[in-house]
Amino acid sequence: MTNSPSTAPLLDVRNLSVQFTTRGGTVTVLDDISFTLERGERISFVGESGCGKSMTALALMGLLPAMGRVSGGQVLFKGEDLTTASPARLRRLRGNEISMIFQEPMTSLNPVFTIGQQISEVLRLHRGVDNAEARDRSVELLQAVRIPDAAARVDDYPHQLSGGQRQRVMIAIALACEPEILIADEPTTALDVTVQAEIFALLRDLGAKLDTAIILITHDMGAVAQMSERMLVMYAGRRVEEGQVANVIKAPAHPYTRGLIACVPHITSDVDALVDTLPEIDGIVPPITRFGRDECLFAPRCAKAADECWSAKPQQSDIAGHSSHSVSCWHPFGTEGSR
Amino acid sequence: MKPAADSAPRRGAEIVDKAQHPLREMVVMFLANRAAMVASIVLSIVVLAAIFGPMLHPVDPFEMVWAPFTPPGQEGFVLGTDYLGRDMLAALLNGGRVSLTIGLVAALMSVFIGISFGALAGFYRGLVEEVLMRITEFFQVLPTLLFSMVIVALFGASLEVVTIAIGVVSWTAVARITRAEFLRIRELEYVTASRAAGASNVTLMTRVILPNALPPIIVQAALMVGSAILFEAGLAFLGLSDPNVVSWGQIIGSNRPYILDAGFTVTIPGLAIFVTVLSISLIGDGLNDALNPKLRAR
C-alpha cells in the first residue's frame, strides 16, 4: 500500500452517473458514484447482481454498451478526464494502463489463436515489439502467472487449457503492459474454490510487484477480505457504504452491508450441529426503472425504513471514529449503538 | 472435484490434446467422410483435365474438323463432333477451363461482397445494419437470372461481365450468414476482452470476429462455386455468355436444336456440369461436417 497524499490520486472518480436509453425511457444505472484509488491500492466493489458494479468498471474503461452514456461526473486518471477522452486515446489506455479481466475464463480467450499469439497481440499493439520479442515476453509472462512448462504451452490453444489456466492467461494478457490499474470483474466466479485462492494469491503478488492498483468486483465477502484494503458497497447503482475492509466488516453501518455480511455462511467444527437457516436479505434489487429516484432504493427491503427513506435520497455521511468510513443511509447502524 | 487440475501438469492429457489441433482435427473429420473424399478426387480430375487437357489435346474447339454429328468413339473422335463438325473433346476441355474459372471467380467475388456487407452490418448494428441489410434484401428479391441477363445485355456478353453479373446476384446468402455470425460472436466475452485490451474496431472485425465466423462462410463459398457454374451454364444456354469462348453451358445451348438427332452433344457437357457441381456440393457438405464443432467427436 503506497500513499502519496501530496499528489493527485491515480484514479479519481467524481460524481459519475451513467444513463441507459431504453425503449421505456431513460434510466439511471449509475447514480453519483465517487471514489479514489491510489497507486498500488486494492479496492473491492461489492453488491448483488445488477447493482452497477460491472457497469462502473465498463464506464471507467469507456466500454459502456451502445445504449449507455456517461450523463454526469468525471473519471480522472492521472488528472485526465476519461469521459471526454477521444476513442483513440481510450484505445491506447486500454490494455496498456488500465486492464481488465473477466468472469468467464472459458470464453474470454479467442478460440482460433494460440495463447502466445493472444499475449503477443497486446504487446505488439501497445509496445510495438516484433514477433520474436513478443514471443519471448509471452513465455516470461506465462511463467509469471505460474503456468507450468510455459515454453511449451505458449503454442497451446485455449481449449487445451483448464479454466484456472485460462484465467491465468487472461491475467498475463492484462498485465502484459504493466498497467497502472487492473479491473478484475468477478475473476474467480467460474472457478473451483481451490483454484480461486490461487488466482487471488497470484493477483495480489503480481499487483504488488508491478505496483498495480486492483479494483476487484465481487459479491464474495471472503474474496474482499482476502484481496482488498478498502471496499465500496453498491446497491441499485449507488454507493451505500465505503471504508476500510476491516472496519466495514466489523461494524457495517448500512443495513444492506450488514445483510450481505450476515449472508456469508460460517463453517463450524461440529458438522452435526444444528445449523440455523442461512439469513438472507428479503426481496430483490428494484427494477432498473426505479434506479435514480429521490428515495432510498433499499427501503422496500429494509427493516428500519421510515417515512424519510421513501421521500428523499440519503446523503453520504462519515462515521465517527473510523477514518474514511462513510455511509449513505437515514438510519445507519452504529450511530444508535447497535452491535 | 478435480483436485488442483489447474497447477499440476497433466502429461497424458497433454499428448492427447496436442493431437487434437483444431486444423488437424478438421482434416481428420473431412477424410472420414467417404462421399467428400470421392468427390474431392473426382473434382481434382476435372480440374486437372481443365488445366492440362487443352495442352494434351491441342485442337481448336472452334475449328470444323470432321463431318457433323460423328458419334463418340468413331473416326478417332473420343467424344464425337457437334452440329458444325467441331471436336467435342476439345470443346469440353476448353469449356471446363471457362466454367471452372467463372465459378471460382464469381464465388470469390460474392464472398468478398457478402463478407463486407455482413461484417459491417453485424458489427456496427443500428443505422449501418438497417441500410446494408435493406440493400441486401433488395438484391435478394430480384429475380437473379433476369437481373444478370439485364447486366449482360447492358454491358455486353464478355467473360468479365458474365462473371461480375453472377457475383453481383449471388452474394446475399454470404452477407446474411456473415451478419448472423457477427451478431452472435460480437457479444461473446473474448470480443469484449479484446476491446478491453485496446483493439480497434477494424482489428476486432478482421482479426477477432472474422476468423471465428469463417467456417459457415467457407462452406457457403464452396457451394457457391457449384451454383455459379450452374448459373453460367444457364446464361450460356440462353445465348447470353461470351460467344468467343467455349463453356459447358454454351455447348449445350448451341447444340440444343439437335437434341433428338444427336443427344450426346448435349448430354456430355451436361454430365460434366452435373458431376462437377455434385462433387463441389459433396465437398461443401464434408467441409460443413468438418467445421461444425457440434459434429466433432469430443
Low-pLDDT ranges of chain A: 1-5
Largest interface: A-B, 44 and 34 residues
CATH class of the largest domain in chain A: Alpha Beta
The oligomeric state of the chains shown is heterodimer
Mean pLDDT of chain A: 85
Question: What would the CATH topology of chain B be?
Answer: MetI-like fold
The sequence of SSEs of chain A as H and E is: EEEHEEHEHHHHEHEHEEHHHEE
Question: What is the number of helical segments of chain A per DSSP (H or I, 4+ residues)?
Answer: 11
Counted up, domains of chain A total 2
Structural class of chain A: alpha/beta
DSSP, total strands of chain B: 0
Largest sheet of chain B: none
Q: What are the main properties of this structure?
A:
heterodimer; A: 339 residues; alpha/beta; Rossmann fold; 8-stranded mixed β-sheet; 4-stranded antiparallel β-sheet; 11 helices; 12 strands; 31% helix; globular; disordered N terminus; B: 298 residues; mainly alpha; MetI-like fold
What does this structure look like?
The complex is a heterodimer of chains A (339) and B (298). In chain A, the strands form two sheets. Chain A has an eight-stranded mixed sheet, sandwiched between helices. A four-stranded antiparallel sheet of chain A has the order 2-1-4-5, covered by helices on one side. The N terminus of chain A is likely disordered. Chain A has eleven helices and twelve strands. In chain A, helix 3 packs across helix 4, helix 4 crosses helix 6 and helix 6 packs parallel to helix 7. Chain A has two domains: 177 residues, Rossmann fold; 116 residues, Rossmann fold. By secondary structure, chain A is α/β, with parallel strands linked by helices. Chain B has 298 residues and is mostly helical. Chain B is built from twelve helices and no strands. At the A-B interface, helix 2, strand 6, helix 3, helix 6 and helix 7 of A face helix 1, helix 9 and helix 10 of B.
